[in-house]
Amino acid sequence: MAPALFWALLGLLPAVILGQTTCSNYGSANGTQCACPPGFAGSTCAEAACGGTIFQGLSRPLASTTNGFSNITTCPCQDGWGGVGCNTCQTNQACQSGYNSVFGDAASTAAATGVDATLQCNTAARVYASGEMSCQVINPTLQALYPGRTALNILRTLDPSLSTLRNISDLGDKGSIRAQLWYNDVETFYCQASDCTQTEDSESGAVSWQCNNLSCTCIPGSTFCGASPVRPSNLLSLALF
Ligand SMILES: *[C@@H]1O[C@H](CO)[C@@H](O)[C@H](O)[C@H]1NC(C)=O
Ligand SMILES: *[C@@H]1O[C@H](CO)[C@@H](O)[C@H](O)[C@H]1NC(C)=O
Ligand SMILES: *[C@@H]1O[C@H](CO)[C@@H](O)[C@H](O)[C@H]1NC(C)=O
Ligand SMILES: CC(=O)N[C@H]1CO[C@H](CO)[C@@H](O)[C@@H]1O
User: Which residue, among 148, 144, 157, has the nearest Cα to 182 in the 3D structure?
Assistant: First the structure.
């Protein structure tokens, strides 16, 4: 047997033995498919969504790949959506029209039942059901080693059963956080924390989250996970920092 074929077959073995799909980004099995966190789709949640809205779930368009990785550089956000991967709403109108385009006019159906189904984009720090954030990571030590764009997406979930996304995406457990780190528009690792509590300072409105049990998964071959070797002198300055 040709060595290459041998190794290829060996690589298939774990999948055959398990006989199930392993979902990336801490997505979970949903029948024979994966339920993915917002912003991810594809058969194993390893592919980044490209544009669209969070209400489209697994039906969102997918980013194209560079060097085998989903790269969202050329993914424009729809009006009213922003952040890395376009998962954060910026206007009430964006939430409502995104929802309506998937589920029909919620307001008129709800009017008949006397329920107010008006969606609002929550831009406050406090999470009610589940909320997405996106920020640039600006740190001199990091920039010295990796001068490109580093960004972090954070999903905080207090009670997934209260979210309009509950049957669309896997939001994680009650009181959990999921986060992904992106470098130059390619995901490089993802983390989750559980056992979280949210506290709000009633006077300042500041919100803090306290969690236990942080775990992270590095995406093999991505920038921070084996792709570009870091020079020993740089490593030393990182250790001293
Ligand atoms: C799970 O699968 C069902 C049936 O295909 C689908 O309707 C539902 O949206 C999925 N849930 C999630 C969270 O992906
Ligand atoms: C993503 O694509 C852009 C445009 O092609 C490229 O400049 C960038 O380096 C890519 N990101 C990575 C991590 O390869
Ligand atoms: C921490 O995570 C592990 C693995 O996911 C889980 O088995 C354990 O129950 C968690 N512990 C707490 C305190 O949440
Ligand atoms: C149709 C459907 O899948 N409904 C589910 C939506 O999510 C709630 C709460 O997680 C479930 O109880 C429903 O069965």
Answer: 148
The whole-angstrom separation of Cα 36 and Cα 97 is 22
The answer to whether 86 and 38 have CB atoms below 8 angstroms apart is no
What single-letter DSSP state applies at residue 199? E
Q: Is the dihedral of CA 92, 98, 104, 106 positive or negative?
A: negative
Ligand in nearest proximity to the CA of 193: 3
Which residue minimizes the CA distance to atom 10 of ligand 4?
A: 161
The rounded distance, in Å, linking the Cα atoms of 97 and 191 is 31
Contact present, 24 and 45 (Cβ < 8 Å): yes
- Token pair 């006397």 is found at 114
CA-CA distances (angstroms) from residue 139 to 31, 49, 67, 126, 235? 42, 27, 26, 25, 15
Q: What is the pTM of this model?
A: 0.84
Map out the domains of the chain as residue ranges.
3-10+23-239
The single-letter DSSP state of residue 209 is E
**pLDDT tens digit string along 3-34?**
444 344 444 433 433 445 699 999 999 999 99
- For atom 4 of ligand 2, the residue with the nearest CA is 73
* CB 31 near ligand 1, within 6 Å: yes
Structure tokens at 55: 């209400």
Task: Quote the ligand 4 centre to 123 CA distance (angstroms).
Answer: 26
